[in-house]
Amino acid sequence: MDNRKIPFGPTYEEMLHPEKIDPQIRERASKAIQENEMDPINLFNITWKDESNQVRKIVLPKELTNVDANIVVLLGTYFPSGSHKVGPAYSTLIEGCVDGEIVPGDHTILGPSTGNFGIGVAYICNLMGYKSVVIMPDNMSKERYERIRKYGAELDLTPGTESDVILTLQRTYELKKDPRNKPLAQFELMPNYRFHRYVTGNSAIEAVKGIGNGRIACFTSAPGSAGTLAAGDQIKAVFPEAKIAALEPYECSTLANGGLGQHRIEGIGDKMCTLIHNVLTTDFVTLIKDDDCVRGLKLLQDGTDVLVSAGISPEVAESLKNLFGVSGICNILGAIKMARHLRLGPDDNVVTIATDGFDRYPSVLEDLGKRNLELENYVLARWLKDIFQAEDEKYIYDFRRGDRKEQLFKQKEKDWLPFGYKKEYLDEMRSMDFWDAEYDLCKKYDEKISQSR
């Protein structure tokens, strides 16, 4: 057995409020993020906040969005490893450590993913001294695979693309029959829910202070594992009038109407209702066309002149580069669509998330170039109007009625009973008490983490 001491990291409270970290540790961590990405002290950089304890965010220019409401985007690219998914990866691993279920040297960590969570698992396991295997589809962007290998993880590739994430779950269930393999199962384990409800949700609430009326009218996120959607539970707890919209690819509308299909929005685990998706707080399911997200990324990345011509200042247009990936554009388009649908005004705030940045998508734009004969500025100008600014309220489904909730509960049963979960357990999820009890465990795990270090 490897007797190395596990390098314990932050509590949930410290990830939300990094100013509560020991000042010497925080200073070391701030230097390490610039100088040595693989120093374990970087665990203390897992937070939405910068060195001055402000939430990293951008309020999108209204010349881009063409809506009165403020679209506030939290920026995940500044997390260690380049994505906020490192947060739930760490939370799931650290909970297993303090519970004594995961031991360095004894266990290999499995990370089922379509990209960013797998990158986060590879990174966290490197920092914490674990061997890791990332299980993901074999048709994702090459940048994802390169980053995972860079962090020292093995890749176990399953057939298909983003829409075949169910195959990664099946492969994970096969591998975990070996007791030496411990999965950080983002689609079904509650640390993912806890991280996003506690850290992301409360960070979003802080992010709108001083913007508009200081409240959140709507929160939008593509489900992926549905971890990020858990932020909506905390937002609703503070702002009960807030609406939560889950965003799906138009090409694979499983939650909306049972639709199945392939799509190009990497980072969305679909063809399922994930186990940790609290459907009680999902008010709308909104469909976004996949190529709109890729084209939108092209515009923000390479269309600075077009944005300036639309009235955006050169400094702001330039600042939009490198902040977003394809799923981030999906979340932004969903936020714009919901702002129109809900008739929100200049005092209202819509919050969404940019999971990662552009660094893992150059090959996606290369593919876009191969599929489009023309990408000149006049084409990008048309995309600005057709994708971001069009008065489009199509494909918005209201899920506030009981029969719509039941549709999602039945989808969850269909997806998870075959993996051994009992209907009685799934039925517990029909009560908000279940989700609040899971959230309350943050305090217990904070005590355990503090004691362990």
From TrEMBL:
GO biological process: one example: alpha-amino acid metabolic process
Tryptophan synthase beta chain-like PALP domain ranges (all copies): 71-356
Q: Which cofactor does it need?
A: pyridoxal 5'-phosphate
Query: What InterPro entries does the entry give?
Result: Cys_Synth/Cystath_Beta-Synth, TrpB-like_PALP, TrpB-like_PALP_sf
> What are the alphabetically sorted keywords of the record?
Pyridoxal phosphate
Q: What name appears for this protein in its UniProt entry?
A: Pyridoxal-phosphate dependent enzyme
Q: Which organism is it from?
A: Desulforamulus aquiferis
